[in-house]
Amino acid sequence: MKIKRSIPAMLAFGAVLATAACGSTTPTSSAPVSTRYPTENVKLTLWWWGEQEVPGAQQWLTDTIAAYKIAHPNVTIDAVLQTTDGLIPGFEAAAAAKQGPDIQYFWGGIYSQQPYWSRSITPVSDLIPADELKHYTNAQLEDSNGDKTLTAPWYVNPQFPVLARTDVLSASGLTVPKTWDDLLKACDVLSAQGITTLAGGVKDGWFGGWLYSMLGAQSVTSKDDVVAAVLGKQSFTDPLHAGWWTRLQETRDHKCWNNDINSLELYQAQQLWVDGKAAMTITAGTDAPNFVAKAGADRVEVTTMPTWGTGPYAGKMGTTSQTVGVTSWTKYPQVAADFIMFMHTPDRLAAWFTTTGSLPADDRFDMSAVSDPVKKSLFTYAAQGAPYLENFIPSALDSRAVFTGVQLVLQGSKTAAQAASDMQAEADRERRTDRSLIGNFTSWSAK
């Protein structure tokens, strides 16, 4: 379950927090926060998610809490694992009541911005020193607003590796495609033999957001281009933003996908690749080693989406960090922040990798500990990664325009131009109906 979010929850999250912020702009300051570490008994509640995508995270968190308890006997931390569909609605209810978790898990980008806009979190930069935060991977890219860092990255998700089966490709005289022309050629050759080039499933929508991020990033110059389009300063019909729809239509026209892509959910389709019935597939970064092991490491090359654009992110893998934040109502913000910093101590960083095999979101992690070639490749891509575009658009725009548009283009019901026009129309609608959107996104884009 990787970056797989409930569509109703995504829409509700945007709606509820927009309502909370209606008529206001991004907070300009936070209340003074005490830096005194309490000596009385303290109980913190942490609502989190992540075991679903990084098995072993729960054991690591249990061990980390126990280690923190030894260092701070007066502090008890209760960690409550949330469901995927319940993570956002649960926090919405807590924010409305101003009670519940003291530390809350957030996906990156827009998902860490919205709680700040609704004043539901205290920026971690108010609590954690800048010389500590500077080590947290993607904090500045995704989780900052103006001079504030809102939430603290926990672990990194490379988004998204392309897994190519060299045995399937070589049997047809092909190598792993690196350019867009090479990919379309492979699609032509393999489809003529009844072989799927790319295995995917868009029935549940999620894969559409992946494709937007992987293809769309190749033409923009920074995440600020995306935010500018959300604000109406650029258009989603401009070539800068619409070119990826054309590339998507080309994959349909060249029969790159499995015929039932609109009937399968994402993870159902990936099994075609495991079974050797498709040459390539796309997975979440944390899943890639498992898929490679199933197919056989000697048969697989981990790569990026073939390049079509000339932007700085062409040929790069997206990167995003999952984060934790401090709620605005906690009685002990400094203790919550101190625990977050404890999560980033050398012992805990090393233990995270040992326990989960995933990359901690901290540039102080010792990469020499990584010997597996697949993980080393993924971690290298993540360290040099591109912005994950899906994290920089409103969740409603993602689900209503991107998810739906990808489904319709791949089934042949929409052209690339029509899908781009629909995306622009939805962005226009959201600016008209959400009075806080302009102010919030303007603040986010400010340096």
From TrEMBL:
Signal peptide annotation: 1-20
GO biological process, one term: maltodextrin transmembrane transport
Pfam family, one: SBP_bac_8
GO cellular component term, pick one: ATP-binding cassette (ABC) transporter complex, substrate-binding subunit-containing
This protein's record includes keyword Translocase: no
Keywords of this entry: Signal, Transport
SUPFAM superfamilies from the UniProt entry: Periplasmic binding protein-like II
GO molecular function, one term: maltose binding
Similarity comment: family membership: Belongs to the bacterial solute-binding protein 1 family.
Stated name of the protein: ABC transporter substrate-binding protein
Organism, scientific name: Candidatus Lumbricidiphila eiseniae
